[in-house]
Amino acid sequence: MGRILNYIENSGKGVYHCYQTKKFFLETTDYDILNYDDKPSSSVKASKFAESDQTRVPSVLIKDGQLKRIRPIFAYFLDGSRHTYKVDDISIGKRIFPFLAGQIVVGCCERQDRDTFKPFRLCHDLVLALPDEFDYDDEGENYCRLYCEKINTEIKDLAFVKLSNLKFSKLLLYKTDRIDSYSANSKDSYKNRAVSVIQTQMTNKEQELVAQLCTENRLDSSHYLIKDGSLEYNSGRNKSEEERLKYRENYRYVVGVSKSFDPELIPDFEGHKLSKTIAGLKPHERTKVYRYKSDFNGEEYAVWYLRLRQDDFSETNFSDIVKCEMVILNEGDFIQTDLINSISANLINEAYPVCYGNDTRWANHLYPVYLTETYCKSKYINSEIVLNLF
Known about the structure:
With about 400 residues, this protein is an alpha+beta fold. About 30% of the residues lie in helices and about 25% in strands. It folds into two domains: about 1-35 and about 80-210 and about 380-390, no CATH class; about 35-75 and about 220-350, no CATH class. The chain is built from eleven helices and 13 strands. Strands 1, 2, 4, 5, 6, 7, 8, 9, 11, 12 and 13 form an eleven-stranded mixed sheet that branches. Strands 3-10 form a two-stranded antiparallel ribbon. Helix 7 links the parallel strand 8 (about 225-230) and strand 9 (about 255-260). The longest helix has 26 residues, at about 190-215. It is elongated. About 35% of the residues are buried.
């Protein structure tokens, strides 16, 4: 038995039992069903515009003149990703739960001009995900912090831990209220609950990094940030109004760009499914900007879809389309259409050069985002090293 599992079993004095099941890296297909980028479809019958131009047309063309004379506004690029591992099954009382670990990387790159694209900031965390019954005395956050410190003390003398300066930053607990039909592949399995708390920890780190940029006055109308993926975090349900206001202020100059999305997330202004309009976008054309209110955090977002390229892609009608999001600062506010067009023109320009051959999603990629993803992926610790800790 590995060092961590052995420590957990011995420290539990009979409360915990580790089964020494097969340890493995959870492949993408194992957590696709969590659909973090594809939120539940809006229940509204027809969407309202979120841009100042209220013209009732399905799409808007970004003209060549706008592309050529546009001043670059994106200076920072943010990407977060994580690897998750099934490290064992653990019994607590008469119930058995999956024991997961996670490796989280959140990175930001900075571009001052065409010749100075460089890494700016990085967060790398190792975390543990255990059932909430693991804290059998309900001691809460303090228990998790102290137990994590004890595990780090237990492994600190291992040669590869010293060499890589490894340590676990947090012990996360996932809820274990009863699941009616337990299945490892169901959307509400214990395994997926464990993955979800690791995902939430990753998005918390993303928000912390954005907050740091704001504190340092690095984001403004001339220095926007592109966040890879949706801005709609599902960790905002229990935030106070003050915290939600701070989130909106921090994301004033942030644009979320998603390579994969649900084209039927919202209807158009006439109540028709927006997917047909999205699929029919011409090169450098965008949809109108619509309001979308999140069921996850109650925030309101401005959402539009943009076709990046002039080339003809036959793989799917969505091959070179991205979903764009901005936070609406105050309920009922409109974002100026000139700003939307400027951002869209910048995004089209950011699609070149291309990473064809290096990424299967190259048609949906913005090149600086691809570079940021590559930087983050290069910082992962080998999965075998992580698994050998257990």
